[in-house]
Design brief:
The protein has 759 residues and is of the alpha+beta class. The protein has 18 helices and 39 strands.
Length: 759
């Protein structure tokens, strides 16, 4: 049953006030990261292949042959502080710290035809248009903005595989729709390998684009149809002149010629419009063929009723958001449902309606019995997003596991995905945390998984000697810094993945595998330096690297963090970590120091991923390796400190504003941390069936599970100051532990926290 109103607690007072009638009303897709804006505000359905969204500039990846640091702000194409829009593209990443995509930009214009986007300081030098946030609306599966230069109202919505545009024009005999296949995110001159467009008739255009970027063999096919015939069309081919051009030179391909091919292709389509006339576009994509793209279009968006398509997409979002319905104060409601929205954007569907998809081997495959997914940002999402799916969407997550196994079977390296997108392994970040995702699903008895095949794939991946220092790790028991960089981070993450494999092996009664990988999981000990009390880079001669600065985020041995944060990354053996660091008392003092120390500005000088907005003391919430740290007080016997810190992090790092996130959302991980923590528990070590208790910020929550059961959470005496848990009960019995188990959730029941302001 959908909740239609909420009891909202304001400053602890139990006074009910009127609230929006739909959960989607609490979602703000404009919420992004301070100074980065790495989330896109456009139209997408849950886990959709299409993310149709505005682009606000066209910065190149390189300038004079060097990396352009400003391009980092445009990982999602949209920057809230910009004042112009250059068009609307169909594919985006959500909250990543690296990028690609931005396929097939569409821009409506009137007046003189311009095919160059121009520059932000001189917008009339191209086709871009100024816009105002006062005339901009962003909701789940709906985006609307007025392009003030042209007096065109742009509206966007989407199905899983189809982007739907609706442009309301003024009266003119010079209306244009520009299709720019040159534009891309993280773009550079040679990124487009090849582009082809074909005008099938006066309302239908098909084609494809292949790019060489983060994914070096991405190919996207499309079918684009207009709601009314265009009167004229043409192409601009900015490709480098070739020595051999064939006999195509006998044609004028620029004007009313039905096909074009090259690396730098733009198209334009002309219309006459009366005031208020709408030109609608349906743009379907496919990883396989234009025929499949057309089938996707005809299946998912057969008509032209924009409102109906939008409502259908928003109903999908209502259904997803209602799987974990809460009551809370207004800020928490908005943070929470926006976090739910962000957590259900990725991974993305990567197959056509007929089940076909492009595989890692670049051949066409057909998914049998599962939906194939891509966009696996696994260094981030294994921590909380996939565990969240195991509770709220286990069937979908089992299909993601099947997709990872398909990746493994198609891999020339016989490895599970590391960071994969669009039939490409991008090899981004460290570890191979698909192992964690598979182990978590197996240990939690998620149905529909080939458990033996999953274990075999994990073992083969973990034994791959040529991967990123893994050969040294297997031989020496650690990654040596003089042989392979980020050695401490890799050693610690490999040790955790080893533990995940051991847990899976134990579940499947594979004692030989269990023994091998449980022993390997202890390798974190080999980079611990007792003299400093930190995990420290070690060299191949067995000595610790000198000099050593535990504060420096650019210190050799670590990636996107420093020794303070990474030394606490032993999620699978926190009890042993505490003993290494001198016992519970010293460990608690160490954690206290982490959260309270003051850092100089030089700490941030050499990193794009960490800013002052994303830290508390030296605790870096804006980057994922720290996400479990606040919960470690539980293991040290100070759960009240976990409760205080978790509530403090939620309050400081999440706000329902355009710069409201303390760091990159990273395909839903930052948001999944918030969802779990707001509910009152967190998966410190995926691969275990335990969720460690914290301090809920909700008043109540109801989890509607796939098996038809419900799990409810109640925080009695909830309030801004009542952050401590006096006691907690599960199904009426007081808990004598600081965790609950996965089956205790899926069996249904009631978890009650009794909140107080006393430690």
């Amino acid at each position: 049953m959908r909740l239609t109103s909420f009891l909202v607690f304001i400053l602890g007072a139990h006074s009910a006030i009127a609230q929006p009638q739909r959960l989607t009303d609490y979602v703000n897709p404009l919420i992004g990261t301070h100074k980065m804006g790495h989330t896109f505000p456009g139209a997408t359905v849950p886990f959709g292949a299409v993310q149709l969204s505005p682009e606000t500039d066209t910065l190149p990846y390189e300038v004079n042959g060097k990396y352009n640091k400003d391009v980092y702000k445009y990982c999602a194409g949209y920057q809230y502080t910009d004042k112009t829009i250059v068009g609307f593209a169909h594919t985006h990443f959500s909250g990543t710290g690296h990028s690609d995509l931005g396929d097939f930009l569409i821009m409506p214009t009137v007046g003189k035809l311009q095919l160059n986007p121009g520059t932000a300081d001189r917008p009339k030098s191209g086709y871009r248009s100024p816009f105002s946030h006062n005339e901009e609306t962003a909701r789940p599966d709906y985006y609307r903005v007025r392009l003030s230069r042209y007096n065109i109202l742009a509206e966007l919505t989407a199905t899983t595989r189809v982007g739907v545009h609706q442009y309301t024009f003024p009266k003119t005999d010079s209306a244009h729709i520009i299709l720019d296949a040159v534009y891309g995110i993280y773009n550079y001159p040679d990124k487009n390998v090849w582009t082809f467009m074909r005008v099938e008739n006066d309302t239908l255009v098909t084609g494809y684009r292949q790019t060489n970027g983060w994914g070096r063999t991405r190919t996207v096919y499309f079918a684009m149809t207009f709601s009314r015939p265009f009167k004229d069309y043409g192409f601009q081919n900015g490709s480098k002149k070739q020595v051999y051009r064939g006999f195509w030179r006998k044609f004028d391909e620029t004007h009313n010629f039905p096909e074009i091919a090259g690396t730098q292709i733009k198209a334009w389509f002309d219309f006459n419009t009366r005031a208020g006339d709408q030109i609608k576009i349906k743009f379907a994509i496919s990883p396989v063929s234009t025929a499949n793209a057309l089938q996707n279009l005809q299946t998912e968006a057969p008509g032209w009723n924009f409102k109906q398509i939008k409502q259908a997409g928003q109903e999908l979002w209502e259904r997803e958001l209602s799987k974990a319905a809460i009551t809370a104060d207004d800020n928490t409601l908005r943070n929470y449902y926006t976090a739910m929205y962000h957590s259900f954007i990725n991974p993305t569907v990567y197959m056509d309606v007929n089940g076909e998809y492009r595989g890692l081997d670049q051949n066409t495959h057909k998914a049998e019995g599962f939906t194939n997914y891509t966009t696996f940002s696994l260094w981030d999402t294994y921590r909380a997003q996939h565990p969240l799916l195991n509770i709220l969407q286990p069937t979908r997550n089992s299909h993601m596991v099947a997709s990872m196994l398909a990746h493994y079977n198609q891999s020339a390296h016989k490895m599970l995905p590391v960071w994969s997108n669009s039939a490409n392994e991008n090899w981004c970040m460290i570890g191979y945390h698909s192992v964690s995702v598979l182990a978590d699903a197996v240990v939690k008895d998620i149905p529909g998984i080939d458990r033996a095949a999953a274990l075999d794939a994990c073992v083969a991946t973990a034994r791959h000697k040529s991967y990123d220092g893994l050969g040294y790790y297997r031989t020496l028991g650690y990654v040596p810094e003089d042989k392979n960089g980020a050695s401490v981070s890799k050693t610690l993450e490999y040790a955790y993945d080893d533990w995940c494999i051991a847990r899976m092996a134990a579940k499947l009664n594979r004692q030989d595998i269990y023994n091998e990988f449980m022993l390997r999981s202890l390798n974190f000990r080999n980079v611990f330096d007792p003299s400093s009390g930190f995990m420290r880079p070690r060299l191949s001669n067995d000595s610790f690297k000198k000099p050593f600065d535990e504060m420096n985020t650019d210190e050799p041995g670590y990636i996107e963090g420093n020794a303070w944060n990474y030394s606490l990354y032993v999620p699978h053996a926190p009890d042993e970590l505490i003993q290494l660091m001198g016992g519970k008392r010293r460990f608690i003092a160490h954690l206290d120091s982490l959260f309270t120390m003051q850092l100089p500005d030089s700490f941030f000088a050499k990193t794009e991923d960490i800013s002052r907005d994303g830290i508390i003391g030296n605790y870096v919430h804006g980057n994922e390796p720290s996400h479990h740290i606040a919960y470690l007080y539980n293991e040290a016997g100070a759960p009240h400190k976990t409760q205080r810190q978790v509530r403090d992090i939620m309050k400081k790092m999440y706000h329902p504003t355009p710069d409201g996130l303390g760091g990159n959302d990273d395909c839903g991980q930052m948001s999944a941390w918030y969802i779990f923590s707001a509910l009152g528990f967190y998966p410190v070590a995926p691969g275990s069936d335990q969720y460690w208790l914290g301090s809920p910020s909700v008043a109540t929550a109801t989890l509607h599970l796939e098996n038809g059961k419900t799990f409810t959470i109640t925080a009695r005496n909830q309030g801004d100051k009542n952050v401590y848990v006096q006691k907690a009960t599960l199904n009426g019995r007081e808990l004598d532990r600081t965790y609950i188990r996965h089956q205790e959730i899926t069996d249904g029941g009631a978890l009650v926290f009794y909140m107080t302001d006393k430690e």
